[in-house]
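User: For my dataset I need records formatted as: sequence, then structure tokens, nothing else. Please produce one.
Assistant:
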Amino acid sequence: MNVFPEGDGVFETIKTVDGVPQFLARHLERAIKSSRTLGLPIFSPEEVVELIRAEIERTGIFPFGRLRVTFPTDGRVFAIHEPSTPWSVPAKLMIFHDPIDEDSTLAGHKALPYKENLDLLAQARSAGFDDGIRLNSASLICESAVANVVMKVDGKWITPTLSSGCLPGITRAIAIEWFGINEKDLPGSALSAVQSMFLLSSLKNLQPVEFLDGRKLDMSDELLQVARAQTVQDLVD
């Protein structure tokens, strides 16, 4: 169904593989940090883990699943587990003209309401794309509507810094740790110099981008091996 709840709060979208939530500890740590920053009730990780176990037991085990855990402002916690289909083809991206306000209170948080992001995703798909690249108010490359990005520019792999307003993604952090990807802010004009690109998210892991605003990119072999694996070695914290 992939239906987002209404209201305010934070949420985490976690990939499950054969019923096992991937990088669960990292997701809960991020949710706690966001809750604390935004002044929301702080939940008990142990209780959330039990809630997740009960939800997976209720729904059954899927080869690939999407586990969405929501932490509303009233202190309650909800978990929904559904089957998920991994990406099968490279992505086609447009360039959005709706900048991210990197100084917003919600910038850098997986926060509700999520309508703006979903509206942008729908806009891209109605135009024949899978997603799009967003700049921030300073015209720096930030992220896509629903994912982080990593770009190869002048032979180097780069991802925007967190100060750009992008989400501190779990897969983004792992890619930086494992592959030595550099954090650097680039102007939107640098998109014309991007040689290769990947979308990074917990569900996508690393999805290669084939077209950026109609321009065909190189399908790099350096990270495709990881992307084709569908999971980043399926490690669980």
